[in-house]
Design brief:
It is built from 4 helices and 4 strands. It is mostly helical. The chain has a domain of about 40 residues.
């Protein structure tokens, strides 16, 4: 299968694999950088002094879309951005009770102390 592969093809596969890995790990890298910046500015490391954290299950939207490719539907997002109500195939998030966010636990501890 790989007996006639050239060096430039191997390099292309390597670069492709590197780009795929970088794309998949971009959110983790962003999280590390933002936490570092927040701590150097004296802000809350989790929420950045917003006092709210987005729900990880619904990604801060309050609804969970079902039966869609990677939970993405461009027409649904477009109609919601123009004020339309297109909740076909979606359920209220039980994790955050359809609010899309939680109170930051670290800020709540600091305010109670």
């Amino acid at each position: 299968m790989f007996e006639n592969i050239t060096a430039s093809e191997v390099a292309g596969y390597g670069v492709g694999a590197l780009l795929l890995y970088t794309t998949l790990s971009a959110t983790k890298i962003d999280s590390v950088i933002s936490t570092s910046q927040r701590s150097s500015l004296g802000m809350c490391k989790r929420c950045g002094d917003l006092k709210l954290i987005a729900c990880s299950k619904c990604k801060g939207q309050g609804i969970i879309r079902e039966n869609m490719f990677f939970n993405f539907n461009a027409m649904d997002d477009l109609s919601q951005s123009f004020g339309g109500n297109s909740r076909k195939g979606s359920l209220s998030c039980k994790n955050c009770r359809a609010r899309g966010h939680f109170s930051c636990p670290e800020c709540s501890k600091a305010s109670q102390s």
